[in-house]
Amino acid sequence: MSNVKVRFAPSPTGNLHVGNLRTALVNYLFARSQGGNFMLRIDDTDTERSTAAFEASIRTDLEWMGMHQDSEDRQSERLGQYDAALQRLLTDGRAYACYETPEELALKRKAQLSAGRPPVYDRAALKLNDDQKAAFEAEGRRPHFRFLLNDAEVAWHDMVRGDVAYHMSSLSDPVLFREDGRVIYTMASVVDDIDHAITHIIRGEDHVTNSAAQIQLFKALGARAPEMGHVALLAGADGEGLSKRLGSLSIGQLRDEGMQPAAIASLLARIGTADPVVPQPVLGDIVDGFDLSRFGRATAKFDPAELAQINARVIQQLDFAAVETDLVAAGVGGGAPFWQAVRDNLGTVAEAADWWSVCTAPVTPVIEAEAQAVTNAAADLLPEGDLPADIWGDWTRAVAAQTGVKGRGLFMPLRLALTGRQKGPEIAPLLSFMGRARVIERLRGNTA
Ligand code: GLU
User: Fold this and answer.
1) What is the dihedral of CA 161, 166, 170, 173, to 10 degrees?
2) Topology of domain 79-188, CATH
3) 162 pLDDT exceeds 70?
């Protein structure tokens, strides 16, 4: 193993949706492509909104995707480390206590904005002397703590965005701890990344500003900031930003809709890059072509219709062993031969059940008046015995010879009579599952 270590750090305050799954996947693929460690970090310091059920659902989704973590940790078990880090910053003069209420802060911002100034925190609390602080405490106010940013430019070479620079004078000193004593993500994340020896932080571009401040925080805590990569956010196919439905489209929903994990991974690993999406049935194979530098800065477009197409193309490549459990659960028989007969025509694996029922449950044939000569001849000329797929050629040639009908005029009536549908898998390998008696009944126009 290399020393590369990345983390996916979900807050268990909701289900995973395509956007956060993409962040997880990019981290996973990066770790695997570098022979590194993929860590799962549960960011559960928001005790009001974090739930065990959301955490369980995140774990289920990652497992279903086949994205196994090599290590894990949770923030709620590391509160002592965050307190110690705050003490260190206070001692070094890089953190300071503030007593403004949210209302007072809102008023300040309003005044700054109406004076045409950026709403950057004015550091009034930095000037408080001990008596003033004691007076606030006596009033019953509890302090929140801010990080004192250095008034300097922070620049880094972003693995996705290239050279990025921020001047800290445009940012407010970030809050590290709230007045109720709860640590804020900005702080907890840096302390964790240091303790866990994270080498690369890969996350969405909504964190770029955070990163600028956090780079200073890493330094203030005596560490070097990891490499950073901020991937562009996802937008809907119209480029408009993820619609409400797409934005909240959970992985559980995609699973229920029959999307294969490999199809989701094939798409999410490539959208936002200049590379074509290649439907890969095995997650490990996606690792091979993975290169973070291929990701561009433009918003990546997520189109559920594209996912459905990739899904169909992944299903065409799935071996029977990969779907056996699902097929058996759905009551589909016929083993590998049946799966091979239908898999090219499926939008989802579950649709195999429709074709199983077309083969094994009563179907009302559709036979147009002018097609009766064809279907009757087909019934008359059906070879004796079992119906392996290779009877098809001789049989249909015999029907063509007798009726003088060829091509579509021959095959469509057979399809409509035997399946009741205009479209579907090749008929030849389905005959043996229908069985002789049923084939003859249907060709004669009887429900069977
Ligand atoms: N819990 C944070 C989030 O979900 C993690 C961000 C990060 O990767 O640092 O946004």
Assistant:
1) 100
2) Glutamyl-tRNA Synthetase; domain 3 (3.90.800)
3) yes
